[in-house]
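Lay summary

Proteins are chains of building blocks that fold into shapes. Our project writes down both the chain and a compact code for its shape. Here are two examples, one after the other.
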Amino acid sequence: MKIEIADLKFILQLKRIGSLAGLAREENVTPPAITKRLHQLESRIGARLVMRTTRRFHLTHEGHLLAQRATVVLNEMRSIEEALGERTQAIAGKLKVHGPFGFGRKYLAPLMAKFHSNHPKIEAQLVLSDNLILPSHNAQDSDAFDISISIGNIPDSRWVAHPIANNKRILCASPTYLACSPQLNIPSDLIEHACLVLRENAEDVTLWHFARTGSKKYEHIRVNAMMESNDGDVIRQWCEAGKGIMVRSEWDVAPSISDGTLIELLPQFRLPDANIVALVPQSRVTSARVKLFIEFLRTTFHPRPPWVS
């Protein structure tokens, strides 16, 4: 029996995607080519790795065992490569980063380009999605993200958190909206206002939390969502157009507040912070390129992030 590195990567891809046709699309080959490769691997191993029916696709016990051991082997190989790279001071290999759409476009994309210019042997990959961790990527899989940039809550304890930058949430609206809206003096006044809601993850997005500056006691206000979207850029556009009041991250609205397009409301109250954090799975914490990129991010955003005047 002879198992090659390509075989280990192949079985992990099958496990992640969950179908031969899906893997064929990702690899840009025909489904028969993937089926042939699977049959060849099963023939060499002497065991069936996949069970298929018209409705189901799943790995056999042998398939799961091979995938499990493949993850261990590939992670160990990665560690060896990292150790050798540190000795020779040659930082190379793939760096897979996941981040949210808005922050990713504005900050991560240009920063990764600059990082790649500094380290051209690194294969950089940036995947943007407003889901913190994509469902098809397990934190310990060999094809998982090396770093996932999170804003706000950290719901997944499998990742090691590295603080990158402070970021507060801001209540704001446009002068157009405020010119013809009811008075807003305390958070409970929001009940009389049109509010714009960003619907993401599984959060209760119409329940907003406020505390007086210096206090740890929060007041919880159920707002009226007159308009809502799953895209933060859309919410900001609606707010700037005078459609209502929104809560957005400082990184996103600081320029608009600075030039008067938006006005910060209830400055004597604060909302829960939404700090920028780099999450790293346990299997990647010793990676030289991961540590280097995190340090690069910290240096960029410290001592003061670019959105703070």
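And here is the second example, written the same way.
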Amino acid sequence: MQQGFLLVTSEPGEQVSLEEFQDWYNNEHVPLRLNHLPSFLTGARFSAADSGIPSWLAVYDVDDTGTFQHESYTRLRAQRSLREADLVKRLAILDRRTYEVVKDSGESALTSSYKPDNPTKFLITQWVHVPGENSAFEAWSDAAFRALRGVDGWARTRTYICIDNMKTGTSVPAGPEAQLVPTFLAVHEVLSLSVADSPAFAAAANPESLARIEETRKWELYRAYPCIAQGNL
């Protein structure tokens, strides 16, 4: 069993109001997963704390990457409601990426990560290019963890390898190039966004000279959700 991670970024765009977008996400999309699937261990949503697009992020810890192919999960898209099917067609961006966990620095006493009780308030996501095989990224992760432990305001980092992705939306270009995404991801949990701008974090978050940070985004917590797996619905 290999623990999985689901990351979805989205942008409502001109055809979907923020009110409609939030109502759908909070009252239909998230509950269908977290209220019914014990394989979804946590779920939280964040809004952009930078000027980047997409401006919304959803993250879910999943007990096993096999969940992404299980009928209990795949039917949620295959049998989606008429409302959801209509809304998804109107979104500017819906970028869904599934990952396998590579390394975890470990749970922090400072936050509960994505659980509703004391959730992490800020995330820094970094898509990383590391030359070589997956083992090179594992070594990069270990080096980053050692360096990050000395950074004030850092709480936890987990690294992932992408196993599947699909990007749709009215603003997404046609063709295979729009579907290309970086293979490796690091998600840093921090206590304030000022951590992201510190030289200490910048040095620690990329400890190998051959690695390249392809994209960095900053996020602020919107909501961490209860779920059946935690028994707190």
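What can we say about the second shape? The chain has a mean pLDDT of 96.
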